[in-house]
Design a protein that fits this description.
By secondary structure, the chain is of the alpha/beta class. The chain is 18% helix and 26% strand. Strands 4-3-2-1-8-11-13 form a seven-stranded parallel sheet. A three-stranded antiparallel sheet has the order 5-7-6. GO terms for molecular function: succinyl-CoA:3-oxo-acid CoA-transferase activity. Belongs to the 3-oxoacid CoA-transferase subunit A family.
Amino acid sequence: MAGFDKVVASYEEAMAGLKDNMTVLAGGFGLCGIPENLIAEIKRKGSKGLTLVSNNCGVDGFGLGILLEDKQIQKMVSSYVGENALFEKQLLDGELEVELTPQGTLAEKMRAGGAGIPAFYTATGVGTPVAEGKEIKQFNGREYLLEEAIVGDFAIVKGWKADRYGNVVYRHTAQNFNPLAATAGKITVVEVEEIVEVGELDPAHIHTPGIYVDRVVLGTFEKRIEKRTVTPTE
């Protein structure tokens, strides 16, 4: 079993090998299912010049937003960036390169990268600035643009449960981009709420097979709510 055991003892060990100017794929949507402790470890390491690929860039002071504080992110590839004032400032000041990508296209870029597909055609973005500089081809009378897949040097992922072989289960909507990112990292690191013994996870319920996972680390999580909406008391 030792040769298959992917559990590491610390976040420092989990992110060993991360260097300046690497590309990092991060799971999560808003603040749901984000690998918050792995992000904190990137901040602690101080790696610079990073390209981050994620649906969004967290919020001021939490999630990927903390990597903006020391200008660790050089380029952000994402579909939504509207919740972060520091992100806006760095973008407008020319300190941060941003590649806005339609959400479904971003998901497919990761999925294709994990499947070994270098590029794909999609109708999304045709006739918009998204299509600028990209090849356009007609299929059945409709125009499609060519989008390249994405593979990261690292993928950082938040799971619910994992076994020591790296098989992962996500909880409800925390699946979001996590299973896609997990397949597309040269090194995939998963932080989880619980590590179980091999055989405890129902094989039919595993979302990410361990073949995609290199390291698993056990963490505790703050799980912030991005926007709290409640019914006022009468």
